[in-house]
Amino acid sequence: xxxxxxxxITTAEASEVAAGGDLDLAVTGRLxxxxxxxxxxxxxxxxxxxxxxxxxxxxVLTVLLNTTADARRLGVPFALAGRRRALxxxxxxxxxxxxxxxxxxxxxxxxxxxxxxxxx
Length: 120
Description:
This is STAS domain-containing protein. By secondary structure, the protein is of the alpha/beta class. Helix content is 44%, strand content 27%. It has a five-stranded mixed sheet with strand order 1-2-3-4-5. Helix 3 (85-93) links the parallel strand 4 (78-81) and strand 5 (102-103). Helix 1 (28-40) packs parallel to helix 2 (58-74).
């Protein structure tokens, strides 16, 4: 088991919550609190970077789905970054690809977020 880590990186462009290690049921409360805190700050955009995640439990996906809904309600663009098997496999297995699209990197997530309003 790899210990979970969380870092928040804030720039003028976005807040990025970078996670690493095994994200299981034991850390969902911490992750949810962290993402909610960032949303309350209403950054220009919020990116969850899972490029260093080695395991992603189903409850973490619920947190990410709730964050997606909360971000939309608050008008904060939100995206996921880090196309790793640990994140993609459960998303794909549960059919959540459309609700939780994952970009390769934070830079690509920010570029995708810039395009979304034009596609709507």
